[in-house]
Amino acid sequence: MRTLKLTKDSQKNILESLLKRSPNNYTEYESTVNEIINNVKENRDKAVFEYTKKFDKADVDASNIRVTEEEIKEAYELVDEKLLAVIKKALVNIRKYHEKQLQNSWFTTEDGIILGQKVTPIAKAGVYVPGGKAVYPSSVLMNVLPAKVAGVEKIVMCTPCGADGKVYPSTLVAANEAGVDEIYKVGGAQAIAAMAFGTESVPKVDKIVGPGNIFVALAKKAVFGYVSIDSIAGPSEILVLADETANPRYVAADLLSQAEHDEMASAILITTSEELAKKVSEEVDKFVEVLSRKEIIEKSLENYGYILVAEDMDEAIDAVNDIASEHMEIVTRDPFSVMTKIKNAGAIFIGEYSSEPLGDYFAGPNHVLPTNGTAKFFSALSVDDFIKKSSIISYSREALERIHTDIEQFAECEKLTAHANSIKVRFED
Amino acid sequence: MRTLKLTKDSQKNILESLLKRSPNNYTEYESTVNEIINNVKENRDKAVFEYTKKFDKADVDASNIRVTEEEIKEAYELVDEKLLAVIKKALVNIRKYHEKQLQNSWFTTEDGIILGQKVTPIAKAGVYVPGGKAVYPSSVLMNVLPAKVAGVEKIVMCTPCGADGKVYPSTLVAANEAGVDEIYKVGGAQAIAAMAFGTESVPKVDKIVGPGNIFVALAKKAVFGYVSIDSIAGPSEILVLADETANPRYVAADLLSQAEHDEMASAILITTSEELAKKVSEEVDKFVEVLSRKEIIEKSLENYGYILVAEDMDEAIDAVNDIASEHMEIVTRDPFSVMTKIKNAGAIFIGEYSSEPLGDYFAGPNHVLPTNGTAKFFSALSVDDFIKKSSIISYSREALERIHTDIEQFAECEKLTAHANSIKVRFED
C-alpha cells in the first residue's frame, strides 16, 4: 500500500479520487436506465420478461416469476446447515438491535392544544438483492429486518435468477427467515422500475432499498419521488484510525476485509505512528499473497488504498471527519474519547477486537451504510427508513380564539386572504 | 366545486389526475436544469452571476451577492411591525415543537459488548427560499428552525433578489430571527447547484431544503446523492374528511385556503353526508366571489377540486389513506378515534377549530409536508432531516472470542476470505 504524509493537499486529492467512484458520475448509463424504466412503466410485465431474457438469459413469465413455496423448501435442502444456523443467530442480533430504534408516537398537551407526531410504518417495502459476482445472504437480513421491525405489512423482494431460472438457495433461505412476503425473479434497473410503478406480476411498493450495480443505483435515483429509496450505495470503504498502540496485523487484516469487496473498494489507514504505517504495509503485503481474492485486493489497493501519516491525533481526526468513511475503526489509546470527536462515519468500530466484519454479519447494527462521503448527511439503513411521521394538530375553540388575530395578521402579510378567511369565519358571530 | 360519488373508479381517476402534478413529470425541463447545474459546477461564481443577470435581471457579483448586515438592518425598518411581532410569536411555537423531536444517542451494554447509535447534526445546511409570486416569511421559519434546533453549525440561505438587487425585507427579517448565518442573492436551479457544489462565493452544504418552482425541484433531485435533500415539493393539497356534524362554512373556507396557493393546488372534501356536500359547494361559491385570489382559486378548483360522497366512514377513510394528502382535516364525530385509522397524511388537523392555516403559520408543526401521495413514505420536515446516526460497535476480546467461529463461517459461505481472515487473525495465537 502506498504511504503518504497526511497534508491538506493529500487529503483533498484522496477525497477527489474517492468521490470519482460515486454512482452520480456514471451519467453515461442514464439514458439506458431511463429507457428501461420507461419501458417497464409502459409495458409492465412484458418489458420485465424481455429484459430478464436479455440480461439474465432466463425464461420468466407470469407463471414463474414469483418464487414458490416449493422453491423455498428446495433451497432449505440445498443450503449449508452451518450457514443456516449462523443466519438464525445473526438474525436474532440484528432484530434485537433494530428493535431499539423503534420510535413512539408522541403528543404534548397545553390548555386546549394537542400537538404531536403519529408514527406509522410504510405499507409496502421493496428489497433489491443482487445476484452476480457474490451471494450475500447477510445483505438480505440487513435490508429486510429493519422493515420487518418497523411493522411494514408487505415486504417484496426482487433478485435476478440464473439462466436456469433458479435463485441462489442462501438468498431464498435468508429471505424466508427474515420474513419476506413475496420474492420475484427480476434484477437490474427493470426490477427497480417494476417495484416503483408496479406490473401485472410485481406489486408497486412505497420504498425501495438494497444494494446493486450502477444500473440499479441510477434506477433508484430516477424513481426517487415516485417512491422513497435508501441512499445510493457506492463501493465499500474502511478507514482505520490508529496510533502506536495498534496491532499492525489486525489493522492490515481489517483493511483487506473491505479491499476484497471489489476493485473500487477503498481501504485507508490514518495513523500518528510512522512505525505502525510501515508495519501495516508489510503485513498487508504478506496477507495479500495468501488471500483468495488477491487480484481484486491488489487492484482496489492500487486504486483506493492509502496509508496516511498524520502529525497528531487532531489532524488525523479532521481527516477522518472530512473523508466520512462508510466503516471506521478506532484503534488507539482511549478509543471512546476519540469516538466523541468523530462526526462523520457510517459505523464506528471501537477498540482492537471490534473488527469490521463483525458488523457485516453478526453484531446487529446494519451493514447498509452511507458511502462516498455521504456519511456527512446520511445514516445506516434503519427502522427510521420504514416509518413516516404525520404531524398532529388539535386546537379547541378557546385555544384558537386566543391567537386567531395573530394568524390572520400573518396570512394577510403573506397576501393569502383565503388563509385569513378560514380563521376569521370561525369567529364571525 | 364538482361533486362525485366516491367509487374505486372515481378514486383511481382523481389519484391519477393529482399525480400528474408531480415534479417527476416535468422531464422536459431536465436538460435545461442539467445544463445550469453543470455550468455552475464548472464555472462556479461566473455562471451564478450570469444566470442571476439573465433570470432575475440583477447585477450580482462577488462583492454584493451576500446580504450584508446593513441590508438586514434596513429590512427591519421596512417590515411591518405587526408582522415582526407575529413572526417572533410563531418562532417560539415552532422552536418548542421541534425541540420535542430531538433524538438522543443511545447504547446498550451486554457482557463485553457495547452497541448503539451516535446522533450528530449535519454540519452545513442550505435553505432555499423562493421569491416570485408570493413572499412567505413563514417558509423561512419552517425550513430554518429544524436545522437550528438540530444543532447545524452553519445555515446558508439562497433566495432570488429583485432587479434592484434587493431581497424582500420580510424574508430577511424572518431569516435573521430564525438564525440563518449567511444569505446569498441567488435563485432557481443555479442556487441549488451553487449550494450542492460550492462556488467562490456560495459555500457547499451537506443538505438542501426548501420549496421552489419546477426548476428548483428538478435541480434538487439532480443533486441528490452529492448532497441530501428534503422531499421534492409539489403543489399544495388539502383533504377534509367530514360527516354530517361538520360546519359547511368552516369546511368551505378551509378548502379554499389551500386552493388559493396556485392553479395546481388541490382541495378535496370526502364526506359521508350528501347534505354537507351540497352545503359546502354552496359556501365555496359564495366565498370565491369575495376572495382576492379568486382567479387562482377558480382554476385550482376546476383542475383539482373535488367533493366526494362516500357510502360510509370506512370507505371514506380508505380513500383518505389512498390519496395520502399533504394536509388532512378530520371534522367528524369522535375525530380522535378516526385519527387512529389515518395512515397516510402529512399533517392531521383534528376537530372543527383546527383549521389548516393554523398549521401554516403558528401552531408549531412544520408546514413543509409531503405532497402528491408521498405521505405514504415521506414525513414533514423535521429535526430528523438535519441529523444523522453513526452505528457504534465495541466488542471485548472475550465477547468476540465467543462468536468468532460464527462470523468466520458466515464470511466463508459468502466466499469473502479476507473478511474471515480479519477475525481469525485475532485468535491465531
Automatic annotation (TrEMBL), chains A, B:
A GO term for molecular function: zinc ion binding
One of the protein's GO biological processes: L-histidine biosynthetic process
Catalysed reaction, written as an equation: L-histidinol + 2 NAD(+) + H2O = L-histidine + 2 NADH + 3 H(+)
Pathway: Amino-acid biosynthesis; L-histidine biosynthesis; L-histidine from 5-phospho-alpha-D-ribose 1-diphosphate: step 9/9
Binding of substrate, residues: S236, Q258, H261, H327, D360, E414, H419
Xref: Pfam families: Histidinol_dh
Family indicated by similarity: Belongs to the histidinol dehydrogenase family.
The name this protein goes by in its record: Histidinol dehydrogenase
Source organism: Agathobacter rectalis
Annotated gene: hisD
